[in-house]
User: Fold this.
Amino acid sequence: MTFRLHPDAALEHERQLAYYEERSTGLGRRYHVATMQAIGKAVQDPHQYKVVRSPDLRQVRLRGFPFAIVYRESGGIVQVLAVAHHRRHPNYWAMRA
Assistant:
């Protein structure tokens, strides 16, 4: 299985990576690694995480950062719709589905 980032999710990730790297050298890299690990978990077993929005949107949390990967599996591809902060603008990504 493979994954695809929604263009807005890619932009969110790039912005957060830059933000964390600006705060502390190496922190951006740790954020990137945590993001890729979370996406890897979704790719490995996309149905192991609970549905957060019917019918098929799921999320996996990043370890050590207040973000979650919001995704769905379709046709053997994990579609990453958002890299969403836990507390900012809940469900803003729903229009991407």
Observations:
- The two ends are 20 Å apart (CA to CA).
- The longest helix spans residues 27-44.
- The CA atoms of residues 82 and 93 lie 6 Å apart.
- The chain has two helices and five strands.
